Amino acid sequence: MLSNEQELARRTRRAFLALGGGAVAGMAGLGWLSAGPITEGDIPPNFRKVLGLNESAVRSALYSNNNLAPTFPASAIGKLKPNGEEGLEDELVVADWRLEIKPYGSAGVTQKLAIDDIKTLPLHDETIEFKCVEGWSTVTRFAGARLSDFTAKFCAGSERAICIGMNTPDGVYYVSVDMPSALHPQTLLAWEMNGEPLTEEHGAPLRLVIPVKYGIKNIKRIGRIEYTDTRPKDYWEERGYDWYAGL
Amino acid sequence: MQSLELKHRLTTRWTHWVNFPVLSLMIMSGMWIYWAYDPYRIGFGDVTLLHMFPDWFYKLSGIGKKLSFGMALHFVFAWLFAINGIVYAIYTAVSGEWRELLPDAKCFSQAIEVVKHDLGLGPLPPQGRYNAAQRITYTLIILMGFGSMITGLAIYKPIQLAGLTSLLGGYQWARFEHFWLTMGYVGFFGIHVGQVIKAGWANFRSMVCGYDLPKGAADAQ
After folding, report:
1. Which of A1, A3, A4 to mutate to test the interface with B (most CBs of B within 10 A)?
2. Which residues in chain B show pLDDT less than 70?
3. Min CA distance, A85 vs chain B (Å)?
4. Can you tell me the distance from the alpha carbon of A153 to that of A188, in angstroms, rounded to the nearest whole number?
5. Number of folded domains in chain A?
6. Is the residue at A2 inside a domain?
7. Residue A124: which CATH number?
8. Helix (H/G/I), strand (E/B), else coil: A47
């Protein structure tokens, strides 16, 4: 029979081997997660897969268009930082600006709307906390038309799409959003901010305001909207961020 | 012959050692996320004693600034952190080990004696598996872990979980709480490692293999 000291030494050896084995397995797991081809600036594909699983978990367990972003009194409004100038470089001539629409299932652009066409839709305004992916947030009041109203009026039937894609007129900035979030009652095509017409740095003449997503999805100076059943490309997804980016 | 004394059960040991690298990764990726908006400081009024974090900290630690990868890492390992913590909590509740962990009324006065002892100012009061100061600290750290999970969820989905977020004081407050809980871990880690070094090899070994020599024999050594 082993003495206590021998028994303890045997257990200690075994336990440290197991701990070492655990450490090796953990490193192997990290290696597996980090493996695969990564394009510059992007994250490893297995991390992306887990983000996809998180997205499905959130969408099936939590997400509802009845869950509204909290709204705030006018006294809470702060000064919104105009982060991001991608796609705003060309000179803006509002009279010449048009919003191109490619409805669900159509082969190409079917309509080109002027800002006054869009302003015929019912006006909604909301004072929400705009949240940047960097971590800061600013209470801001936006006014414009619901994207769901817009869709119903200008391309009825496109609600059946899986995704919506938008890009700036020059195509430099582009986002895509899942359809439920696009049809959320607080998702607006906005032309007013804090009671004033949108300034150029905040996305004149028309920007997306989608409180259920981080700021990166709130594209400025929209030039084109398309309804699709695949995922149109997304600027920040290509640069390593979660595609869903839902709040 | 008296048999070996069981100090820590298998579940306690494994969840402890799994937590160490997982929490380390959570803190590192958390720093990558925090960096992109870093308003917190230690100070009062206009006086800032320490900005969290100064430039030299990023240079010296070599941790870098990677928001997108930080978020990806954080939202992958958050699962492990939460599952591991929940396994430990359920085990401790079901096994009855919580009786040795949760502080009782005596603990708060005894804890002062423990701290005095650690500073070389008095005898160690009688204790069970954990001494009074450990019972308070370890219970607190588990509550903090729960707090990290809750504040984390509130920042992660502040609209789908708007009720939770507002309960915590709103989005920015939840972020503030999440950050300072983490600083609490870092402080705990420093004291914990110091205490483990001070307690010596047999104590450390018991956290790995679970056992120590029987009480009488260990005292005779």
Report:
1. A4
2. 1, 216-221
3. 18
4. 14
5. 1
6. no
7. 3.90.420.10
8. helix
